[in-house]
Target: Asparagine--tRNA ligase
Amino acid sequence: MTSKTVAQLLKADFKSQDIDIKGWVRTFRANRFIALNDGSSLQNIQCVVDFENTDEKTLKRITTGAAVHIKGELIESQGKGQSVEIKVNKIIILGDSDPETYPIQPKKHSFEFLRENAHLRTRTNTFSAVMRLRSTLSFAIHKYFNDNGFYYMHTPIITGSDAEGAGEMFRVTGLDPKNPPLTETGAVNYKEDFFGKETNLTVSGQLEAESYAMSLGKVYTFGPTFRAENSNTSRHLAEFWMIEPEVAFMDLAGNMDLAEDFLKSVLSYILEHNREDLEFLEQRLLDEEKTKPQAERSEMSLIDKLKFVVDNNFKRVSYTEAIDILKNSKPNKKKQFNYIIEEWGADLQSEHERFLVEKHFKCPVILFDYPANIKAFYMRLNEDGKTVRAMDILFPGIGEMVGGSQREERLEVLKEKMKALEIDEEELWWYLDLRKYGTAVHSGFGLGFERLVMFVTGMGNIRDVIPFPRTPHNADF
Ligand code: 4AD
Ligand code: MG
Model:
């Protein structure tokens, strides 16, 4: 007996071997043909049941969703649509699935419905394809860094510091919310909490990654991050995965080169290794677009879009240039933007970012040298005294994919900045130490993994590219 996956069987050039396979029934038709899927491939394998020699009771239990164990022979297919099929000699029902109540019927379900059934949605082609791609992408990311001499480090998930200074954190506490210990002034006394201080779920592993870059040279993190921002959009999650490389002796230009090379490399890997899933999702998008007016359809198919990013240079544009382009743009002049760009210094909203990538440049764009006061405290101040060496990479259909910067390596400048923003030096004493002892130019960036998965799969909602999404008012499963 050989135990093989559907993917292996469909590729096999051997015939008539004894086959032993387990999977879930996608459909059972004419009391004879089982479409069996085991997750190894988008394809099902057809299993042909000899219904005359199978007892009625067993046949009745072959329903959509049931788990079965099939023993038989792999033969050249008699029918159309597949080259091989399994002639079933014995079928054992491992787990029944009541066709009356099983939520995943062999028909088209809305993504909203499938989100409510996120525990079963990977039994559909779309979600199994998305999650296989997500898995390959993770692997490609680790491979890229490993091939390029980076060390993978694990940064803490519970932390006392707010790296981004945005105050959008989830508190971690062991105190009784109904009866917390109080200080003399009536505030909650976190000295009595588990860690003896206020702690939160991390918004970024960057600060700790900097410490390791300043000793190991090239490091990266790839872990969960948490943001309590109450933005219920198709691009925000409260819990998402971030990839954060950090490199000593690398400046902002090197950071841009690294990010671009990294993105191109992982996309090439996907194009090479997940063709079947990509083609399926490409077709799904084409079908979806048929229902839209011509003007709203995308100019490129999914695979062409990925190839385009791999083959073309990202456009590098300073914030100042971008503001000029936006100020003079049609939607700004005609007041079609929700936020009209009036002057230098304005923070860019996603509508502006999308205008730049989708309408103006029509390619990935790296914006750099942002005004200091709209960016985080740790970014390297430029000689002009008002911009910082920040970069954001904007992608068509996604908006911000990457946020990064060269870090402020000068102790005094960093202290000044922290003072101005009322960031406690005592809290970040260790971060300041990195500037006190052997400081050097260093840079890094953060890439939102789910946004990359969205781009690769063409899925329009970030909730559909992570297994169990956490968003405002939703932490099911
Ligand atoms: O731009 P951000 O906030 O940058 C940082 O956290 C830096 N500390 C990174 C660094 O330099 N090491 O976040 C980085 C990326 C964004 O560009 C975006 O892709 C993603 O993380 N991101 C989110 N993805 C999903 N849901 C959210 N709520 C996200 N917030 C940020
Ligand atoms: Mg950002």
